[in-house]
Specification:
CATH topology of the largest domain: Glutaredoxin
CATH class of the largest domain: Alpha Beta
Oligomer: single chain
Shape: globular
CATH architecture of the largest domain: 3-Layer(aba) Sandwich
Helix content: 10-25%
CATH superfamily of the largest domain: Glutaredoxin
Length: 592
């Protein structure tokens, strides 16, 4: 299964993009008085008077969660703002209200984020209930008189599947500056984004559907590939204790079909790596949550799944790192796509029977694509795809007698997508290759692409269409398809026209997501007879309605970085050796 967000991973924890709200926040002074009366322990276990901590200053209550990806990213930001306004009569107080967050975990979170302001333990959700907080991170600002002056997000940099280079709106900072200047904030309420606060169960656990008997098997098969310790998902789901507090968030992402991540139209094609939950699985999980998440008898638990700690393919003959030294990933912000070219020194053709891309640090590697740059290649695309990785993807292991030929003199270009998670760290990813002799190869695995580098996406275009075609000069048996676009990608489709005139849609991705570079593997290999033409149709959204859009006012053309665009429809297939593979055609549509 492919993961989580990072920026939008895990269980897809990041809610829909923030919007400005027209309503005013609750300004009841009585709420402030009740808040002042609270006595709560801080993250060191010492009881604190909320009223004394607040004093008469403007107070920022920042609701945080130790495992929520947005809370991790915004922790350092909150500390920066606390320092910025420290001499202006503004006091920051962190609030840890999740039932699943221990004192140790909260202390570690604060230390990693560099937070020096007090963090209060609110595991009974008393403060969260008084201030009507629902998410992490969520901000509630009380002015010096005790009225709620601002409620909502920190800024608009991050949201579901959204990670901007910088925020366009700094809502919290703007609200605080207005209060410091003696005026009310122009925007007093926004929609908070992030994970639901893990609350005490509102109902007594009941019903026949239990974690041990019904839910654990689903999580084991659908979620644990990513939701386990030291993997890219923000929190584990390896035990009943791990699920505590996540019920509301799990229900939300299932209902919105954000998790498990799968962007293809379920009415088109059958793919062996389809990770969608079945209707029955959804029903079981949602009913279990509505019934208060009963644990059941631990004796009913299925065996814990095992995951390969090393290679999932046969031991490779050659391991190639993406670069000589590890790459440093910052704690926060956005890391643009990184490209590293490696010359493996092949002096003769190599025949690959298995290949696997492995992240050196799964917690921050969102995807890897290794391209082959063959001698004499025109600099139109990044090259033929050798192997890709996203959380949960499998190695490529070809059938007996089949291999992928790497021509002598070829180089490997790595495209790396890193996702900061609140802690600065490094990565040293790599790929493994298993070879065979040319004499044993009966069928060649080929990497093909329909590519169009000549497009121009107009400024503010909401639905701009670009097409490319692949005409097969011989019979090719397709194994998988991989669409590739960047931040403005909106939809992608592969349509085949067979020699007899019949047509078929091979893959339809109506909601393309830049954060999930998925390889769609056919459940049964798909034969493309000689003369078949496959048209790839890409639709781009360069308008302001695309929350990921770096700049709707600019025309966009081909380029490797995420603020530029690409249009590639990758194919992986098998053909008989010693025959030409295919020739490509490109075409640009356009318009909105």
């Amino acid at each position: 299964m492919n993961l989580l967000l990072k920026y939008a991973c895990g269980l897809g924890l990041i809610c829909s993009c923030s919007i400005l709200c027209g309503s005013q926040p609750d300004t009841d002074i009585g709420t402030s008085n009740r808040v002042n009366e609270l006595q709560l322990p801080d993250s060191y276990g010492k009881m604190q008077s909320v009223g004394q901590l607040r004093g008469t200053e403007i107070t920022v209550f920042a609701f945080i969660g130790t495992e929520c990806p947005l809370a991790k990213l915004y922790g350092p930001r909150l500390q920066t703002l606390a320092q910025r306004f420290s001499t202006s009569g503004v006091r920051f107080l962190g609030v840890a209200s999740n039932v699943q967050d221990s004192l140790t975990e909260v202390t570690n979170y604060a230390n990693r984020a560099g937070i020096t302001f007090p963090v209060l333990m609110d595991t009974e959700q008393t403060l969260a209930e008084l201030l009507k907080a629902t998410r992490t991170p969520e901000i509630v600002v009380l002015d010096a008189s005790g009225k709620i002056a601002y409620r909502g997000r920190v800024d608009d940099q991050y949201a579901i599947s959204v990670a901007k280079l910088k925020p366009a709106r700094e809502d919290l900072a703007e609200a605080l500056q207005s209060l410091v200047d003696g005026t009310q904030p122009k925007v007093s309420q926004t929609t908070a984004v992030g994970c639901f606060i893990g609350r005490k169960r509102s109902v007594t656990p009941h019903g026949e559907i239990t974690y041990s008997k019904h839910i654990a098997p689903i999580f084991n098969s659908r979620c644990l590939e990513c939701h386990r310790t030291d993997q890219i998902a923000p929190f584990p789901l390896e035990s009943f204790a791990d699920t505590a507090g996540w019920g509301a968030t799990i229900a939300e992402v299932i209902r919105e079909e954000r998790m498990p991540p799968w962007n293809a139209n379920p009415e088109v094609g059958h793919f062996r790596n389809d990770v969608r939950l079945t209707a029955d699985e959804k029903r079981l999980i949602l009913t279990w949550i509505e019934n208060g998440c009963p644990e059941g008898d631990p004796k009913d638990l299925p065996p814990a799944p095992t995951f390969a700690k090393g290679w999932r393919m046969a031991e490779p003959d050659l391991v190639i790192h993406v670069r000589e030294k590890p790459f440093d990933v910052p704690a926060t912000g956005v890391v643009e796509y990184q490209y590293f070219e490696v010359d493996p020194g092949f002096t003769e053709d190599k025949y690959v029977v298995a290949t696997e891309a492995r992240p050196g640090n799964p917690a921050v590697v969102h995807h890897i694509i290794a391209f082959l740059k063959v001698p004499g290649q025109k600099d139109v695309s990044l090259g033929k795809m050798l192997i890709g990785y996203a959380p949960g993807t499998s190695p490529l292991i070809f059938p007996e007698g089949s291999a992928m030929r790497i021509p002598a003199g070829s180089k490997i270009l790595f495209e790396m997508h890193y996702t900061p998670n609140g802690v600065a760290q490094s990565d040293h990813s790599y790929v493994g290759l298993k070879f065979t002799d040319a004499s044993s190869v009966r069928n060649e695995v080929v990497g093909l692409e329909a590519v169009n580098p000549k497009f121009k996406i107009p400024a503010n275009a909401e639905s701009h269409t670009v097409t490319a075609k692949e005409r097969f000069q011989e019979e090719i048996t397709l194994l998988s398809l991989t669409p590739h676009m960047h931040l403005r990608g909106k939809a992608f489709r592969y349509d085949a026209v067979y020699p007899d005139g019949t047509t078929e849609t091979l893959l339809d991705v109506p909601k393309y997501d830049f954060n999930w570079q998925l390889r769609y593997e056919f459940a049964e290999p798909k034969v493309m007879p000689k003369g078949t033409v496959v048209t790839c149709t890409a639709i781009f959204d360069n308008s302001s309605s695309n929350a990921n859009n770096p700049d709707p006012a600019k025309e966009v053309t081909w380029g490797q970085q995420s603020w530029e665009e690409m249009m590639i429809g990758f194919f992986t297939g098998v053909r008989t050796v010693e025959k030409p593979a295919a020739e490509s055609e490109t075409g640009a549509g356009g318009g909105e």
